[in-house]
Design goal:
By secondary structure, the protein is of the alpha/beta class. The protein has one domain: Vaccinia Virus protein VP39 (Rossmann fold, 3-Layer(aba) Sandwich). It is built from eleven helices and nine strands. The protein is globular, with a radius of gyration of 19 Å. It starts with a strand and ends in a 6-residue tail after the last strand. The relative contact order is 0.15.
Length: 266
């Protein structure tokens, strides 16, 4: 596993408060997720999830751990599932409850959600488990506790691949010069073997590991290599053209895991 850092801001701020503030700021920037609901159900995460969800009862209970802007909680709820979205950002949860009064949201820490054990048929969490410097085991074990035997876990984490190694080697001198202020931990990145090991340690049976979002990974690689903004036309065009021909293990931005809590846990 490899660490990523970000500007510290308030270096005395507790990690959980930093995470909550981050998602509060994301809500302020992106707001109501209504326009993204259809788009996410056409994305790769849902395509991978769909056959697994088909095995669940139509009224299955699904937990969205670290729900962020809430689009997955809402979208899966509108497909008939009983969804609950939890997040540490109280301001974000309040906004979601205001915009979607018919959907269940609650303020909670995914490492200790204080929800009943074995209460969910599936648990989703997109880009959240990696944000705690202590590691992801508390998140994994809490997910295990919350799922019923046979329950499904779907998560994504940043993928540590060849792109990161090459980008780090090429930009090491520039990055060192740029990091003149205090830095703090932001996230872990995982190889496939590392993510599989973390889930297995937590008691899960790993069913699939899939690299995702090649275009986003290529966009980041080109942007960092040439020092251009992500929105630069040349970077966006090049990433769109090149990404389909590059193996996901080399450039994919995220890594998705599908895992199952064993039926027999005696």
């Amino acid at each position: 596993m490899r660490k990523d850092y970000t500007a510290a801001g308030n270096s005395a701020e507790a990690e959980i408060d930093f995470v909550a503030r981050y998602w509060t700021n994301v809500w302020k920037q992106h707001g109501d997720p209504s326009k993204r609901l259809k788009r996410i159900l056409r994305g790769p995460e849902f395509r991978i999830m769909k056959p697994y969800l088909a095995s669940l009862p139509g009224d299955a209970r699904i937990l969205d751990g670290g729900c962020g802007l809430g689009e997955w909680t809402v979208a899966l709820g509108r497909r008939g599932y009983k969804t609950l979205g939890i997040d540490v950002s109280a301001e974000t949860i309040a906004k979601l409850q205001e915009v979607f009064p018919d959907v269940s949201f609650a303020v909670a820490d995914i490492r200790d959600a204080k929800l009943p054990s074995e209460n969910f048929d599936a648990y989703i969490s997109w880009g959240v488990f990696e944000h705690f410097e202590e590691g992801m085991q508390r998140c994994v074990r809490e997910a295990y506790r919350l799922l019923r035997p046979g329950g499904l876990l779907f998560i994504t984490v940043p993928f540590d691949n060849l792109r990161h190694s090459l980008a780090g080697a090429l930009a090491r001198g520039r990055e060192t010069a740029d990091k003149s202020g205090p830095m703090r931990f932001y996230q872990w990145r995982f190889t496939r073997a590392e993510l599989a090991r973390e889930l297995s340690i937590g008691g899960f049976e790993v069913l699939e590991l899939r690299p995702l979002h090649k275009r986003q990974g290529m966009l980041r690689w080109l942007s960092r290599t040439f020092g251009w903004n992500y929105d630069h036309f040349a970077v966006k065009a090049a990433s769109a053209v090149i990404a389909p021909f590059v193996p996901g293990v080399l450039v994919a931005h995220m890594l998705m895991a599908v895992a199952r809590k064993p039926e027999d846990i005696s």
